[in-house]
Structures are given as C-alpha cells and as structure tokens.
Amino acid sequence: MPDNAAYHGNTRGILLVVLYMAVAITPLILASVYGYPYGHVLYDLGRSFALLGFMIIVLQVFLAARIKWIEQPYGFDILIRFHRNMGIFALLLILAHPFLLAAGSGRWALVLGPAVSPVVWLGRITLAVLIASVLLSVYQRSLGLKYEPWRLVHDILSPLIIVGAFVHSFMIGADLNLALMQGIWIASAIAAVSVFVYHRLIRPRILRKHAYRVTEVVPEAPGVWTVKLAPAAGEPLFDYLPGQFQFITFFRNRGLPEEEHHWTISSSPAGRDYVSSTIKALGDFTSTMGQTRVGDRAAVHGGFGRFSYVLYPKERDLVFIAGGIGITPLMSMIRHMQDTRDTRQVLLLYANKDQSGIVFSRELSEIEAGGHPSLRVVHVLGSPGPGWKGETGFVDEEKILRLCGDDLDGKIFYVCGPSGLIDAVLDALTGLGVEDYRIRIEIFSFLD
Predict the structure, then answer these.
(1) 5-208: what fold?
(2) 226, 212, 225, 289: which is closest to 257 by C-alpha?
(3) pTM for the full model?
(4) pLDDT exceeds 90 at position 174
C-alpha cells in the first residue's frame, strides 16, 4: 500500500460524494429548467420530493452492492449506515410527496379517496412497501428478526420498490414528459435492477463456482475457532489489508445451515497460501463452526473495511484496545507487522472476562519477544482466577493513562470489541482529551 493511499482514498471519497449529489439532483435541475411548473409552491415541492426520492432509491442499490471502488474510501460499515439513513430520508421525501400534491392542488382524493386511477394505487402500494422495508431495517433487532430472514424480505421488497416507483412516476409524472427525463428514468431503473441482480444473484454464483476450501480448523479458546481457507488450485488469493473483513458462505452439507456472514480476517496478507477468520460462537450459526471440517467449501468475498494501520504509514506509535473476539483485526495487523519486520511501537490492551477467553495468548507472547513490531501486551481481566497478577477490572481512563506512560500525544488508538467496551473506551479517551481523528473503531454489526 503506497504512502499516499489515505490521501487518494480521501480524494476519491470526496469525488464520490460530489457524484452522488450530482446524480441525485440532476432531475431536479432539469425539471426546474425545462419542466412544467404547476404554479403552486407546495405542489411543485411535492413533485421535486418525488424526483429526489426516486433517485435516492436508485442510488441505494449501488451503496449496498459491495462495489469496492465505492466502498474503499469509507469502509463498508460507514457506507451501509449511510445507506440506511438515506433510506429513511427517501421515505420521508416520498411520504410527503402525495400530501404536498394534495395541499397544493386541493385534490385530497389523491391521498384519501378510493376512486383513483390504477397508477395512483400503484404509488400507494409502493409507498406502503417502502415504509415496511425501512421499518424492518431500522427495527430489525428490536423486532427480534434474525439477519437471514430480514435480508430475504429486504431482497424481495427492494426490487418491488424500484419497479413500482419507476412505473408510477413514468406513467403519471408531468416532468417525465421530457424526453431527456424519460431517458434518465429508464437508464436509472435499468442500472439499479442490473446492479441488484448482479449483487444478489450473479456474483454469489460466481463466488460459489470459485469456492475456497477449508484447510484447517483450529480451536483457539472455548467456543472460538480459526478457520483457514485456501483458493482452488491455480487460483490466486484475493488481495486484502490487515484488519479488513470478508463475507463467507460455508457449504458444509451434513444438515448444517448455509448462510452468508461477515467475519474479520485474522491472518496476515503477507502470506498468500490461505486467509483465515477467527470465529466465536455467539449465536445459532456460529455455534456450528466447530463442526466445520477440512475439505468443506466456502464462497469468499473480501476484503472490506478501512480499519487498517497500513492506510496511515506515517503513524508509528499505536495503542490497540481489544475486547474478547475483537482481537481479530488487531491480530491481523500485528501478524502483518511481524511478517514485514515492522519496528513501530504497539501497546495492546486486551480485555477478557478470565484467562480462558484469551485468544492467541502464546502467539502474542512470542511476537512480543521477537521485537517486530515493538509490541507490549497487557491483559486486563474482569474476573481473573486465583493467582492472577496482571491487570484487573476494565480498560478505563486510569489504566489507559498509566499504561501509555502518562503521555498520549501522538498516539493513535485502534479499538475493537463488544459495544459496551467500545462505548466505555471512547468515553475514557474523550475524557483524556484524545481527538476524534486519533481514534479508530471497528464495529462488527452493520445494523446498530
């Protein structure tokens, strides 16, 4: 990764934001210049909301499609949260659309009356489907809806929304009388549907055709396994950065579930024989990891994310703070530093409930003794067993300040772990005056 990678990532990120805004508002500009104003501000505002809302819905597909040149400047976790927020914004725009039209024209039957044209009914149904899709996405966890069923419903509703919104607006929208606008509408709908079909139907089949093979399953701690995956003979391992994550769909048969999940990569990209993820049993699916066998196949898609020290090569004094299985992206970085003989300074504060939860304990000790990187490991246990002489309790302000040597200037903090640990560490770092730009966090869930 070249030294100016972060700069180029920021530049591309800015350009993509500009492109996003340009695509979203171009129909508004064309409608205002060449369109047919109704003459009432509320009515015209309602039309504008519909134009903007449709374009945002189209762009939603691109945000969620794991297109790497779009994802790389931001990280997938940031991008998917933006996707969710823009979905809410699009809903508000389109929800306001019929009420503004009715208020501007006085024709409240558009909103309330049953005796309307089929194309208006199509708009109402599409709006209802959009409301359902957004509410299920926002409240998925609160409703107790598991990821796979939610995703299936989301994948069914999304194309229905695009097609319904396209047909409704194309058939009834006054601004769509313009040939240029019709061309934009048709091209946008085709592009969105094409990207959706590739993302959800074509790419999974390509990945399955080129499935990786499980070469080793290593028990690391109670309920924790490292699964090593190698590409088929003659095929290259995909490129990734230390600290990134991958999407994996295991094909294990034997009655075991076949679901796609994302896991952080724990291996070093300096090794090209295999890629590994270290997985903890945290639910119904992950509890089956111990039943994974050598020879099982898996579709692998990576790497994603920007939680990686190599994007910031000038930073030499790092503090890694991990909780439980949150060690995985940090371990990938530490292993990469060892492989590349990096001499930068790293302090690892590793929090666990007790000794049995410590993952990679022996390897961390060996790397610490090796000097590449200049690593210092401090374990912090919440409920240590008898004879424990290390740190106890939580990673708080006092520990951070004391273990960092009372001088936090110039230190960069990488934080990964359960949400409770992340919140507590962020509060502690903020209380110690550490600026936001010196804190980098990795959040495992996309829907929090």
Answers:
(1) Four Helix Bundle (Hemerythrin (Met), subunit A) (1.20.120)
(2) 289
(3) 0.89
(4) no
